[in-house]
């Protein structure tokens, strides 16, 4: 007995050191490859030759172009958020509260647009709206409406899965009681259900606004200079005008928007998790039948069906147009993917696809290790108030890469790691920078996927294992790991898919002799000629299929009840 107690005492003494190391490794990674590069780039907006100088802010603020860009960013983000919520809330009910044949496939399909490469979405919508496209008669190519539609295409899944994840676990007895007291279905929905879903709706709205405000590839392809955002303006100022000072000032503006959106999302998410925990034991869903549905439910079904068709239309048009050649129909554009497009590319598209897969594997490994450690630390509930504050701060810090411009991260890495800390080594020539930058972007998704499952583990299971003499590491291996394994598989899928489609940071860091597939697609779009356009369409289809395949596998690994996307 004495030896058993001594063993527990040693484990207790070693445990704090283990938690410190578990937090230190992700913090060192974030500080080196996110905090330092971003701070260096942003710092250029505050200094001139090492001296504090705020004149850059006054100069940028005095330009009418700046306010036009900021206004367009807020306008596009607000419109995209409102439409996503209006369409996504009915979809959340149909896809998470009702049971019907093929529901799993539909839920997997509506998730695919969220992780599709932004360049692919831009190309898909252009193929839909340009001359010869199915919707060319609407004359929406290059308009504000086209950009908002593309933003909704991306973020519909965020609303469906975030709101649906709470809705499917919501206790139905409160709504049933309202109905029993004579309230019609619409009144019960407005007075009981929607207020209960308020935290999830607020969280989804905040995240959608964040994603819309920081959209890059889609706006760059669809909007061009006329409907640019802060994100695309940072890219233009750095790559075309080489005006790092203006880009730095705009990065500060974007950070303010990001911090505000993340603060709102964090508070809403905390309330959502508390509500979800209380409702888990009473989860229920009803079988959907047309005859047994009221008019409100039928409207939700029709609207959701129309949205699913609308989501499929750009992708279907992209696939069809990739088969259209100057001589009719055929696979000529796909055959051309094995070439460099008459010298337009440094490598063939298939070689770029292999590069993307290789980079995605490295980025996923990094993201899962770092994100898994963060989720493990943040899932704990320290007894001291200072410890709880530290955990909340760590969680918030690792959400920052979701909203900070990928262009800012990529360019910051490029100018920071030429000779880091004065060391005689140029990391910019290393092939590791691209997967590292992509891992920075993917870590928040890994954390948000794994964290709810870790928090749902009954702490008494860990206490029982420790009481039987298991060391902290063995407790993690025998209690936490088996439960979190399925969520970890989903996290791997998200990280891999996001890495495949990342374009903002990669456009700066990818070496000319080893570009990724999104970079190659963007280069083909910018070249005139039918051959380059056809290759861009075919390459976009290949990239979309790769991403959809990864997400279909990830959906199969989804643990029961794990409906939330973020």
TrEMBL record:
<keyword id="KW-0812">Transmembrane</keyword>
<dbReference type="GO" id="GO:0005886">
    <property type="term" value="C:plasma membrane"/>
</dbReference>
<comment type="similarity">
    <text>Belongs to the binding-protein-dependent transport system permease family.</text>
</comment>
<dbReference type="InterPro" id="IPR035906">
    <property type="entry name" value="MetI-like_sf"/>
</dbReference>
<feature type="transmembrane region" description="Helical">
    <location>
        <begin position="533"/>
        <end position="554"/>
    </location>
</feature>
<keyword id="KW-0472">Membrane</keyword>
<keyword id="KW-0997">Cell inner membrane</keyword>
<feature type="transmembrane region" description="Helical">
    <location>
        <begin position="12"/>
        <end position="36"/>
    </location>
</feature>
<dbReference type="GO" id="GO:0055085">
    <property type="term" value="P:transmembrane transport"/>
</dbReference>
<feature type="transmembrane region" description="Helical">
    <location>
        <begin position="475"/>
        <end position="498"/>
    </location>
</feature>
<dbReference type="Pfam" id="PF00528">
    <property type="entry name" value="BPD_transp_1"/>
</dbReference>
<keyword id="KW-1133">Transmembrane helix</keyword>
<feature type="transmembrane region" description="Helical">
    <location>
        <begin position="247"/>
        <end position="265"/>
    </location>
</feature>
<feature type="domain" description="ABC transmembrane type-1">
    <location>
        <begin position="353"/>
        <end position="554"/>
    </location>
</feature>
<feature type="transmembrane region" description="Helical">
    <location>
        <begin position="105"/>
        <end position="125"/>
    </location>
</feature>
<protein>
    <submittedName>
        <fullName>ABC transporter permease</fullName>
    </submittedName>
</protein>
<feature type="transmembrane region" description="Helical">
    <location>
        <begin position="300"/>
        <end position="320"/>
    </location>
</feature>
<keyword id="KW-0813">Transport</keyword>
<dbReference type="InterPro" id="IPR000515">
    <property type="entry name" value="MetI-like"/>
</dbReference>
<feature type="domain" description="ABC transmembrane type-1">
    <location>
        <begin position="70"/>
        <end position="263"/>
    </location>
</feature>
<feature type="transmembrane region" description="Helical">
    <location>
        <begin position="435"/>
        <end position="454"/>
    </location>
</feature>
<feature type="transmembrane region" description="Helical">
    <location>
        <begin position="74"/>
        <end position="93"/>
    </location>
</feature>
<feature type="transmembrane region" description="Helical">
    <location>
        <begin position="390"/>
        <end position="415"/>
    </location>
</feature>
<keyword id="KW-1003">Cell membrane</keyword>
<feature type="transmembrane region" description="Helical">
    <location>
        <begin position="359"/>
        <end position="378"/>
    </location>
</feature>
<feature type="transmembrane region" description="Helical">
    <location>
        <begin position="145"/>
        <end position="167"/>
    </location>
</feature>
